[in-house]
Amino acid sequence: KNEVEQSPQNLTAQEGEFITINCSYSVGISALHWLQQHPGGGIVSLFMLSSGKKKHGRLIATINIQEKHSSLHITASHPRDSAVYICAALHSGGGADGLTFGKGTHLIIQP
Amino acid sequence: NAGVTQTPKFRILKIGQSMTLQCTQDMNHNYMYWYRQDPGMGLKLIYYSVGAGITDKGEVPNGYNVSRSTTEDFPLRLELAAPSQTSVYFCASSYSQVGRSSGNTIYFGEGSWLTVV
Q1: Which of A12, A14, A58, B80 is geometrically suited to a Cys-Cys bond with A108, CB 3.0 to 4.6 A?
Q2: By a Cβ cutoff of 8 Å, what residues of chain A touch chain B?
């Protein structure tokens, strides 16, 4: 069974700071998702990646398959980035039920 | 674009009552999912469906039932509600198996907060 661990659980930073959220998983995967959960509860997919790096605006996601590790970076952080960030791993042998979710990182960006 | 719509947003149930959480998507997605999110825990899969007429159990199916009579709709039925079912429920959908091809991402509804008292 795949285990997905995120760190830190909680992170408070000042506006403008560079943010890094980490995700580690225990078994081989075919893809990893980064999700953002807004304070109102809605969940939005940010990235899906299986290798290398992806960038969207101020968000960058990287994955190292050999080390079973992914990071989500936020550059020039802003209070509107405050949310819970969730990583979810699709394990290689998994079917439609193959996503395992981390517990999330609660990020607060203070002005 | 509506995307994934789930109702109700909030509901309080008494122990032993039953209810249905509605979920509909307008993206012609084959795959649909129901998850629950408990405080401090990752999302757990309750049931999923890979197409109309096909459903299967996820990690935590006890106390729930689903049906998939159309591509668009995937209701979740709670029978004999128990306090352990107090949670936030998310419906989600994807065109095919999430992550199996580039761009095949997962879309979530806004969540349904359910309290059983």
Answers
A1: A12
A2: 4, 30-33, 35, 40-45, 48, 50, 86, 88, 90, 95-104
Structure tokens at A73: 């970076």
Say how many Å lie between the first and final Cα of chain B, rounded: 36
All residues of chain A having their beta carbon less than 8 Å from the beta carbon of residue B111 are: 41-43
- How would you classify the pairing of strands A10-14 and A105-110? parallel
For residue A47, list its beta bridge partners: A34
In tens digits, chain A (111 residues) has pLDDT values of 678 999 999 999 999 999 999 999 988 888 899 999 998 878 999 999 889 999 999 999 999 989 999 999 999 999 999 999 999 998 776 666 778 999 999 999 999
Give the closest-approach CA distance of B41 to chain A in angstroms. 5
